[in-house]
Amino acid sequence: MPPDHQAEVSIPSDLAEARRVQELIEGALQASAYSEHDIFSIKLALEEALVNAIKHGNQMDPDKRVVVAYSVTPARFDIRITDEGDGFRPEDVPDPTAIENLERPCGRGLLLMRGFMTEVEYHGKGNVVRMAKVRDAGE
Amino acid sequence: MSTQPARRRRLEVEDIGDIAVVNFVDKKILDEQNIQMIGDDLFRLVDELGRRKVLLNFNNVEFMSSAALGKLITLHRKLQAVQGKLVLCNIAKDILDVFKITKLDRILTIATDEQAGLQAF
Fold first, then answer.
1. Based on the structure, what is the number of domains in chain A?
2. Has residue A139 been placed in a domain?
3. Each residue of A27-36: pLDDT tens digit?
4. Is residue A54 in a domain?
């Protein structure tokens, strides 16, 4: 089945640029009549992943870019986000739901990405994240 | 127009008895700079204005990322340190999932609506 919408965009390490990509994707999901709940889930995971790529991956370096490739089909949304940072090992991130970490003020982005998306995988040295959301059943 | 939001009002605070009921002006609580200023305004309620009971009403909030959670935890801790209390209410279902997934619903008091929130102190 061909995707309703497919694109690859490269943006500088700038949160305002990330916001534009998010709006682009939100528009594509709305055009494909995704539910409000699915759109919220994808927007949230996207926000967390882009902030991670720009802040932690590229360290806000204006010379480094983030490449976002995504596709929207009636059945699922797929996205791959690549930054130019040194990557990381997801297993090294402390579990923010552990009782001793519950009151720590950060470290929840990855957890939310996993909670709201169907699939989240890191590739390469940890500078590439691939996520997918299978559309809500019964819609 | 995008770079002058510095002194814009981000919170509406109403006193109901000794409880400060706080509504967010923004529908989206995003962006580090914005969240920093919301945090500063919230902390000022406790640190400078001496409020001890704070009810955050999320009625207006449609979207919020993990960056805001840290501020809520800090506010919760600040109030705990002075024998005060933080209660959240009127959280939309999707945003409630943010609290559930991060298990913050276990340390923060969350009420369904403002009335229930006022009674949670």
1. 1
2. no
3. 999 999 999 9
4. yes
* Residues of chain B positioned with their CB less than 8 A from the CB of A41: 94
pLDDT at A87: 92
Q: What CATH number corresponds to the domain at position A24?
A: 3.30.565.10
Q: Position A55: which residue type?
A: K
What are the chain B neighbours of A37 within 8 Å (beta carbons)? Answer: 94
- What's the complex ipTM? 0.89
For residue A134, the number of C-alpha atoms closer than 13 Å in the C-beta half-sphere is 4
Residue in B66, B97, B101, B104 to test binding to A, most A beta-carbons within 10 Å: B66
- Going residue by residue through chain B, which has 121 residues, state the pLDDT in tens, using 9 for 90 and above: 445 555 678 999 999 999 999 999 999 998 888 899 999 999 999 999 999 999 999 999 999 999 899 899 999 999 999 999 999 999 999 999 999 999 999 999 999 999 999 999 9
User: Helices A109-116 and B66-81, interaxial angle, to 10°?
Assistant: 120
Closest CA to B25 of B66, B56, B69: B56
Q: Which domains does chain B have, with CATH numbers?
A: 11-118 (3.30.750.24)
Helix (H) or strand (E) holding B7: none
Of B68, B72, B4, B14, nearest to B43 by C-alpha is B72
Question: What residue numbers bound the domain in which A70 lies?
Answer: 5-134
Chain A residues with CB-CB distance to B under 8 A? 15-16, 36-37, 40-41, 43-44, 47-48, 51, 96-97, 102-106, 108-109, 111-112, 115-116
Least CB–CB distance from A112: residue in B30, B77, B101:
B101
Hey, is the C-beta of B105 within 8 angstroms of any chain A C-beta?
Answer: no
